[in-house]
Write a structure and sequence with these properties.
Layout: H1 15-23, E1 28-31, E2 37-40, H2 42-48, H3 52-55, E3 81-89, E4 96-108, E5 111-120, H4 122-159, H5 166-196, E6 205-207, H6 209-227, E7 230-235, E8 242-244, H7 246-262, E9 269-276, E10 282-288, H8 321-331, E11 336-340, E12 346-353, H9 357-367
Parallel strand pairs: 7-9
Antiparallel strand pairs: 1-2, 1-5, 3-4, 4-5, 6-8, 9-10, 10-12, 11-12
Helix pairs in contact: 4-5, 5-8, 6-7, 7-8
């Protein structure tokens, strides 16, 4: 049903402001600081499928199906802006819309108000859900055949003797490494779903980060030799142990190393640096390359699923590796970011809390 907006200017608006308000292509609702609706423009009336007289006086919170409360603008200063995603219930049928909301408090003609702009993102949410379902199906269907491929390749490699050609040995090694990389990708997809669902890490244990870095560098050594890129380790001698799920930590470092290697040229070097953070019980691990770096406007996007910085010459990929790293690091209670390296290129860093003394003591007791 099409509802007609009021054509009479409201006293809080000047005439020009009223025309801008009504002619806006965005659905806009005006409330007082407590959320009571004062006005809704034509686009908002159509979006919420309610007439003006039904909306006015209602609290805007009743239009939103949210787990969290809406922003309390009575506690925020003038010109404060809040952005959040929400779900709105339409009056007709039992249909819901997903919306992105930008709410701003300001003074209009001597009156404190909040302007709520709603952007319909239902289609985007539906596409994201379809993409997640597709990823889940791919993971499920890949697990069994990929396991068979890896087992078969390991058996073939075991059967190869010294009398077989070096080329054959090299081809099998490439196939084994590539299949293990696919297994890492499948595991990362599974863990992304688990971490996004809020499932806690269950296999935390004290980990010597120096040993982890040395192990990962050994695993990656053939790839570095093939690309003629030097891998350097800079590990503090007094580095703290951390409390981590070691298999996930391995994949975080592998993803960051593979990402750095993609953008490195022959003759360049990559540094893995591990150091205790100053003034806190944290350990920082950095992977530093000499590639082209990440422009500032993309430094948040690169950690999102299926997102890529398309206007710089990046190699192909699904955009899952860094998304997994972000989720994994945050699940450990740390954070991850990227900045310019001093030598040029990118410096991806993440922090993880150091293991407490009682964690280390429990580990030693269990071992004995």
């Amino acid at each position: 049903m099409k509802h007609s907006p009021s054509n009479t200017p409201d006293p809080i608006f000047h005439e020009a402001g009223w025309r801008l308000f009504q002619d806006s292509i965005d659905p806009i609702i005006i409330t007082d600081l407590l959320g009571s609706i004062i006005l809704a423009n034509e686009q908002a009336i159509q979006l919420f499928d309610r007439p003006q007289e039904e909306l006015v006086g209602q609290n805007i919170g009743k239009l939103h199906q949210q787990a969290k409360e809406l922003p309390d603008f009575t506690q925020l200063p003038d010109n404060s802006v809040k952005r959040f995603d929400s779900i709105i219930q339409l009056s007709a049928a039992k249909k819901v819309l997903y919306v992105e909301v930008h709410a701003r408090r300001y003074m209009l003609n001597g009156r404190d108000i909040v302007q709520w702009i709603h952007h319909d993102i239902t289609r985007q949410v539906e596409l994201d859900e379809l993409r997640q379902d597709l990823a889940a199906m791919l993971v499920h269907d890949l697990q069994s055949p990929l396991g068979n491929v890896i087992s078969s390749l390991e058996l073939v490699r075991g059967e190869l003797g010294p009398d077989h050609s070096a080329i054959l040995h090299s081809m099998v090694d490439v196939a084994v490494r590539s299949s293990h990389y696919l297994q890492t990708l499948v595991d990362s997809l599974l863990d992304i779903s688990r971490l996004e669902a809020g499932h806690p890490l269950t296999n935390l244990a004290p980990v010597n980060i120096g040993s982890v870095v040395e192990y990962i560098s050994g695993v990656q050594a053939p790839d570095f030799e093939q690309r003629n890129v030097t891998l350097l380790l800079e590990i503090d001698s007094d580095i703290h142990s951390i409390l981590a799920e070691i298999n996930i930590l391995h994949r975080v470092l592998l993803n960051l190393l593979n990402n750095a290697l993609k953008y490195s040229q022959a003759g360049q070097s990559i540094i893995i640096r591990a150091q205790n953070e100053t003034g806190g019980n944290l350990v920082r691990i950095s992977v530093i390359d000499e590639g082209q770096g990440v422009p500032e406007q993309y430094r948040e996007i690169v950690f999102e699923k299926f997102q890529r910085a398309d206007d710089i010459s990046l190699s192909a990929g699904l955009g899952l590796g860094l998304a997994f790293c972000r989720l994994a690091v945050e699940a450990h209670g740390g954070r991850i970011w990227v900045e310019n390296a001093l030598r040029g290129g990118a410096c991806f860093s993440f922090t993880i809390p150091a293991a407490a003394d009682n964690d280390l003591a429990s580990s030693l007791t269990s071992a004995s």
